[in-house]
Amino acid sequence: MSILRRPFITAGSKLLQTTKAFLFDCDGVIWKGNQPIAGSIETLNYLKKIGKLVFYVTNNSTKSREEVLKKLRHFGVNSSLDEILTSSYATAQYLTTLPDPGEVYVVGEEGIFEELEAVGIKCHGREDNDQHDISALEHMNTNVRTVVVGLDRSINYVKLSRAGSYIRDFGCTFIATNTDASFPYPGGVIAGGSGCIVSAIETICGKKPDCIVGKPNRSFIDIIRLHHPQIQISDMLMVGDRLDTDIVFARRNGISSLLVFSGVTSESDMKACDDKLAPHFYTNSLHDLLPLLSSC
């Protein structure tokens, strides 16, 4: 599609009818913190009711798919595990394609550990959660061959240093779950994302990640098409609140895109952005889709 920045209502009913698979970001689209965004739950359930495929594609690596499913169901969404794609899950799937990822040092939270361990990968890193003694760096595990970095809200100096040393001094593969700079938080404040930690480790080891798994890269697309080969790129619509991840992800992979203003991006941000970041359509929130869905 070549026409950008159109109000969703201008093509809403037709696009909703022809779209077979809806890809939703979560934070800022479905919920903020622990509160659902008005109209989001009703919209998701109605899409399922009329036979649409719905996928939740989130760069949030702190939660496992099971935890995201629990949250969706708590909010009243009729969902199943195979609809949920987190960057931690996609990272685990990516590592299974490598000839020998070895043992993994994780800078991140339980979502990464759970997904990696679920596919049989031995992980390290929990032992450094409360480690503040730099002398701990004298003991490095030579079985570690890969470093996986995601959001880590208990990040400390030892974790950063150990990860950087594994990459620089031991030649370990450097994998980032995503490089989001920030994420929305209730109260109008901004919270640092995985990208802050990835950048710190880049500075320590002098190397960029060998692979960035999450949006805007195509790992989520590959997983969806592996399990649903009948779904074509032209059948998909990406719905997100971030220009640099959700919309670039859609544009880079040839998917139609809908930006909602319920998260980190405002209408003025969208109007001022470069065309390569611009969505095909925009609207205030998922609540705006409900009247259009009734005609599908």
From TrEMBL:
<dbReference type="GO" id="GO:0046872">
    <property type="term" value="F:metal ion binding"/>
</dbReference>
<keyword id="KW-0479">Metal-binding</keyword>
<dbReference type="GO" id="GO:0005737">
    <property type="term" value="C:cytoplasm"/>
</dbReference>
<dbReference type="InterPro" id="IPR023214">
    <property type="entry name" value="HAD_sf"/>
</dbReference>
<dbReference type="Pfam" id="PF13242">
    <property type="entry name" value="Hydrolase_like"/>
</dbReference>
<keyword id="KW-0460">Magnesium</keyword>
<dbReference type="InterPro" id="IPR006349">
    <property type="entry name" value="PGP_euk"/>
</dbReference>
<feature type="binding site">
    <location>
        <position position="241"/>
    </location>
    <ligand>
        <name>Mg(2+)</name>
    </ligand>
</feature>
<dbReference type="GO" id="GO:0016791">
    <property type="term" value="F:phosphatase activity"/>
</dbReference>
<feature type="binding site">
    <location>
        <position position="215"/>
    </location>
    <ligand>
        <name>substrate</name>
    </ligand>
</feature>
<protein>
    <recommendedName>
        <fullName>4-nitrophenylphosphatase</fullName>
    </recommendedName>
</protein>
<keyword id="KW-0378">Hydrolase</keyword>
<dbReference type="InterPro" id="IPR006357">
    <property type="entry name" value="HAD-SF_hydro_IIA"/>
</dbReference>
<feature type="binding site">
    <location>
        <position position="27"/>
    </location>
    <ligand>
        <name>Mg(2+)</name>
    </ligand>
</feature>
<dbReference type="Pfam" id="PF13344">
    <property type="entry name" value="Hydrolase_6"/>
</dbReference>
<feature type="binding site">
    <location>
        <position position="25"/>
    </location>
    <ligand>
        <name>Mg(2+)</name>
    </ligand>
</feature>
<feature type="active site" description="Nucleophile">
    <location>
        <position position="25"/>
    </location>
</feature>
<feature type="active site" description="Proton donor">
    <location>
        <position position="27"/>
    </location>
</feature>
<dbReference type="InterPro" id="IPR036412">
    <property type="entry name" value="HAD-like_sf"/>
</dbReference>
